[in-house]
Amino acid sequence: MVPGDRKTLVSWLPDVLLLIGFPILAYFSVREVLKRLDPDAGAKAEAQQKALAASNRLQSIFSNHDRDDDDDDEPRDQDEYGDDDAAYREDRREPLVLTPMEQTIAMEVVTPNEIPVTFQDIGGLDGIIEELRESVIYPLTMPHLYSSHSSLLTAPSGVLLYGPPGCGKTMLAKALARESGARFINLHISTLTEKWYGDSNKLVAAVFSLARKLQPTIVFIDEIDAVLGQRRSGEHEASGMVKAEFMTHWDGLASSTREGGSQRICILGATNRIQDIDEAILRRMPKKFPVGLPNAGQRRSIFELTLRETKVDRGVGQGGRKKAFDVDMLVKLSAGMSGSDIKEACRDAAMVPVREYIKMQSREGRSMRGIRSENVRGLQTEDFFGMRGSVGVGNGLQRRRTGEVEDEDKMLGTGSGSSKGQQEEEEDEWRDVEDPDEVDVEDVRR
């Protein structure tokens, strides 16, 4: 190369570097500017990190469960594996690989040991609990016992709990997942809501594909009427597509697994507006359990369960005519209250002795450091009355008079899940109770 050519090449070098470097610099600059202009950039990054963490957590739990589950009861295909049980198990334990959409759904997965509620924590619903055990838990946990006899002996693909608010539907769902040992996908409405066209459908598909990978699985949808309500001509196209996608995958649960057994997946819904659920959805939920307002025996069970760790006054009231704590009176005056109302009334009442003790200590000028819990008196019947703004007993009777409970009974269609004889007994019970507005606290004390 002659010296003149070398000089020409050197003179071109800056232009070449500029020509190559400028587009690269412009690309990174524009990307950084767009990132700063995106208000959701931080949220997206955080969501991706959470999804990845949920996926890793699920992978760890899934692997540990398979290692410990040496006595798994799933049916084996002996023709394919013969006596080589190790080969069967090695083939069955495929690595848990999740798609990006499945990682999003994985954030909603709750394992049984993370659920603090058991059937023993639920009062007054023994009949429904026993039916759930027989129709859902046993087929999910012992598929070999059921599927080996008949293809009809499988867990229902859908279960619906319906009734007034505060009657224990969500607690039943949690306890069902805990007792069955199934993975629990607590599907929120917001999880299926995406702004990009078609993404909601992909998320619905991810729900079922993830449930298959984690089975036995319970997919719980609270307020299911808001997601899978009746289809109307004026609703948004995206909403109709989500419902259609959901039902299509739901129907696919009837197909068999690779091992030849039925898929151990159950869709569990809860609602207090059963009349708003689409008929096609109701058809796919053959098991429907009305969870209505508790009767007298159920209310007693709820009171005893709620107050089992609370100190109560076992003495007699002033004058010695009545017990200081009379659960029979509370059961009678709480007619028409839900389980949640009773629990809140117990919480309000339990605060009364504590407030009294603190006020007494303050009046006597004693230091609050000297307060001892064992010096607080026990709970009395009168503590359930009188606090303005609290959920006191007797409010259920007020709801009966205003017709709220009758409206709920009509919604249930079965009289709050009670038989005709139970309904008549309940009606006689609350009619015989004196008006809560006329209940005199002084009379309760006496």
TrEMBL record:
It is found in: Mitochondrion outer membrane. Residues 68-85, 424-446 have a biased composition (Acidic residues). Keywords: ATP-binding, Membrane, Mitochondrion, Mitochondrion outer membrane, Nucleotide-binding, Transmembrane, Transmembrane helix. GO terms for biological process: extraction of mislocalized protein from mitochondrial outer membrane. The chain crosses the membrane at residues 12-30. GO terms for molecular function: ATP binding; ATP hydrolysis activity; membrane protein dislocase activity. Residues 155-295 form the AAA+ ATPase domain. It comes from the Eukaryota. GO terms for cellular component: mitochondrial outer membrane. Belongs to the AAA ATPase family. This is Mitochondrial dynamin GTPase Msp1. It comes from Recurvomyces mirabilis.
